[in-house]
Amino acid sequence: TVLFLVQIPELAKCSVLMRERAKVEEKIQAMQCAGLSRLQVISDFDMTLTRFAHNGIRVPTTHIILNNKLLLSEDCLKKIRELHNTFYPVEIDANMTTEEKLPHMVEWWNNSHKLLIQQKIRKDLLFQAVTESNVMLRDGYKAFFDHLYEQRVPLLVFSAGIGDVLEEVMRQNHVFHPNIHVVSNYMDFDDTGVLQAFEGQLIHTFNKGEVAVSQTAGLKQMQGRPNVLLLGDSLGDLTMADGVAEPQNILTIGFLNDQVEERKKSYVNSFDIVLVEDETMDVPNVILRNILTLRDDK
Description:
This protein is of the alpha/beta class. The protein is built from 10 helices and 11 strands.
């Protein structure tokens, strides 16, 4: 089957930017010919699988879902807001290098996690915090998750957010399928179900590459799948496939949600496909449908 992108109307929308259309076409064709058994999907969570905003209001990230009076004191909420206001502009600053941002991200994540630990968050309240939040997965999310599950394509959700919270978001949306593996910052609860620490290596926006090499390289369900569809909303997400052994085709899709004009050039130069202020999974879904049209008879 020869695939021409002109047959994919979703890719002709003005919100879809591509530096090299022919290269995108080649990768989709190569992935299509290799078939299902050679494909895996690696995706960021916050602002990639979840929406960035709805009706002009920001949708909460997994960290911000915890900003609930059930879980946190007024003083703690104030401090977390101050951290966000200080460090989020650094995270998305188009004029700073990743190296310059690194110490700031470590400081932001460590300070946020310390504050959460001090609050002695109860595990049994996470369900309610997610229910009461206005977190939303992107339009078309169900087709995305269900299609991968039905076709037995593994999905690695790779998040600098909070693993316990994002699992709960997927569970409440009925898409936390067995083909999903999550690498994220997980809470460590004591015997009484109270938060006492965070487990393992800290994952922030810009160290996903080293985490990928140390934590995802040995994942059995990902082995023998050298073709990767990678979804992210930050340039730091481009390193999420660093743990893939002998990759053949990596097709990267970047959601450009914020500071569009300032960051457009760097995104177009870095991702194969850039989706500008697009709150849907339409483009990933149509690409998956095209890759998965050739059934695996091997």
